[in-house]
């Protein structure tokens, strides 16, 4: 059990951005014999064949083509690759007095205060000049060193700090990187860092997509029973989905793992769940003429995390359906259909849990609290396919560190394996 959880922690730590989550996922798929396809080329697929495609370097999908061509159906697991973080702005260098800091923007719904006073590292992709301006060279970069800190204001300078502070994301959350007087080039801290790391000329760097991440390693707490880690939302589900598709065999139905980017900012990108990406993959697998027929016979598990009961804020939970860490996958309900679950898809999911030998609990927000959403509802509407929204329960969602239970990882692995199992009907 701990080995599986350690594997998950390693995947997350080595995937500080959606680009790395995709690249590391793709490496595993290649090793397991999946063939890479490219959107810009024709796809020649065989029944029973294993394939994957990546988009923007930050989203990917992997599948095993079903053997039943006459009446195709697909079992889909969908989980997003992105997580809230600070993104480096263009022209990031700022100087205040003798201090150099970097200008950043928040990405997604961050809990800002959790980012203070922690050594931060930097990762993402850098775009370099190449022979064609339309195809700049993309280089992944992960500067896994404690480079910078967002310092708190001392309590002596704000005695009210423990009564709650409003942070201005332009003024108060910029990371401090160096003093002006050090031998570092005053004007080009980031450029110097990138050229050193990539062993390239400054002139070759055209642009970048870089985010900050916590340098300290994730790990176990509570006697090994719990996981304290950044990006459990939603790399936990991406990883469990990967494990399931890597172990799956060809069967009558197509098995698809879909991992889009940009869920945290509304999915409205060409590599997000709101795009044609998933639809175009499915159309190419089952054929355009059979697409609607296949969707009517298919089922999507939209896998994302939900809120576990926080013992210090138990009044924030629904009075009859609180979700508890370690008590199994959660079925996410919303009368307003912010989650795609309804009675029918919940019943299907409960049946699956029973066959997998995994417990399952209902999750719904209090009627006086507006909860979050997922990619489930938009995929359901776009594809015309039945979707269930499920996940695992964590505390501190969107904190720089989230807390989950090791046993829930086992449940998710078992559940996804059963979902792709040809014998599970
Ligand atoms: Zn999420």
Label this structure with key terms.
binds zinc ion, 425 residues, single chain, 20 strands, nine-stranded mixed sheet, alpha/beta
In summary, what is this structure?
This protein has 9 helices and 20 strands. By secondary structure, it is of the alpha/beta class. It starts with a helix and ends in a 6-residue tail after the last helix.
Provide structural commentary:
This protein is of the alpha/beta class and 425 residues long. It has helices spanning 2-13, 18-31, 189-198, 232-247, 277-286, 291-296, 343-356, 376-383, 406-419; strands at residues 35-36, 50-55, 59-64, 74-78, 85-96, 99-107, 120-128, 137-148, 176-179, 205-214, 219-221, 226-229, 254-259, 299-303, 306-307, 330-332, 361-363, 386-391, 393-394, 402-405. Zinc ion is lined by residues 80, 233-234, 263, 304-305.
Structural class based on helices, strands and sheet pairing: alpha/beta
Helical amount? 10-25%
Order of helices and strands: HHEEEEEEEEEHEEEHEHHEEEHEHEEEH
Beta-strand level of the residues, as a percent range?
A: 25-35%
Shape: globular
The average pLDDT value, as a whole number, equals 96
**Which ligands occur here?**
zinc ion
Low-confidence stretches: none
Q: Treating each run of at least 4 consecutive H or I residues as one helix, how many helices?
A: 9
Number of strands: 20
Distance between the termini: 26 Å
> Which strands sit side by side, in order, in the main sheet?
1-2-3-13-4-14-18-16-17
Radius of gyration: 22 Å
Main sheet specs: 9 strands, mixed
């Amino acid at each position: 059990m701990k080995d599986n959880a350690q594997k998950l922690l390693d995947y997350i730590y080595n995937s500080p951005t959606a680009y790395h989550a995709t690249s590391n996922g793709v490496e595993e798929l290649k090793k397991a014999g999946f063939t890479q396809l490219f959107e810009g080329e024709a796809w020649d697929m065989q029944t029973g064949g294993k394939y994957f495609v990546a988009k923007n370097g930050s989203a990917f999908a992997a599948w095993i083509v079903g053997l039943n061509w006459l009446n195709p159906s697909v079992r889909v697991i969908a989980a997003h690759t992105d997580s809230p973080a600070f993104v480096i702005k263009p022209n990031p260098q700022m100087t205040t007095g003798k201090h150099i800091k970097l200008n950043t923007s928040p990405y997604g719904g961050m809990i800002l205060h959790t980012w203070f006073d922690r050594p931060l590292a930097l990762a993402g992709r850098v775009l370099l000049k190449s022979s064609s301006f339309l195809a700049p060279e993309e280089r992944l970069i992960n500067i896994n060193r404690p480079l910078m800190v967002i310092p708190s204001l001392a309590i002596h300078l704000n005695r009210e700090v423990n009564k709650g502070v409003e942070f201005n994301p332009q003024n108060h959350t910029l990371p401090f990187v160096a003093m002006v007087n050090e031998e570092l080039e005053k004007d080009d801290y980031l450029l110097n860092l990138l050229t050193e790391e990539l062993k390239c000329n400054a002139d070759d760097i055209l642009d970048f997509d870089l985010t900050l991440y916590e340098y300290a390693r994730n790990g176990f707490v509570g006697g090994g029973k719990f996981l304290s880690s950044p990006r459990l939302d939603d790399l936990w589900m991406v990883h469990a989905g990967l494990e399931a598709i890597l172990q799956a065999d060809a069967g009558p139905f197509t098995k698809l793992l879909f991992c889009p980017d940009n869920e945290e900012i509304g999915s409205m990108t060409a590599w997000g769940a709101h795009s044609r990406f998933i639809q175009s993959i499915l159309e190419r697998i089952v054929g355009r003429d059979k697409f609607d027929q296949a969707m009517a016979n298919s089922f999507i598990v939209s896998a994302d995390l939900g809120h576990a009961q926080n013992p210090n804020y138990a009044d924030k939970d629904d009075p009859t359906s609180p979700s508890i860490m370690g008590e199994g996958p959660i079925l996410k309900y919303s009368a307003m259909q912010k989650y795609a679950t309804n009675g029918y898809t919940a019943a299907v999911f409960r049946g699956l849990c029973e066959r997998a030998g995994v417990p399952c609990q209902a999750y719904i927000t209090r009627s006086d609290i507006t909860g979050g959403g997922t990619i489930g509802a938009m995929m359901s509407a776009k594809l015309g396919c039945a979707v269930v929204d499920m996940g695992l329960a964590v505390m501190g969602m969107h904190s720089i560190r989230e807390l989950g239970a090791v046993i829930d990882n086992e449940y998710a692995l078992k559940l996804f394996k059963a979902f792709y199992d040809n014998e599970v009907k």
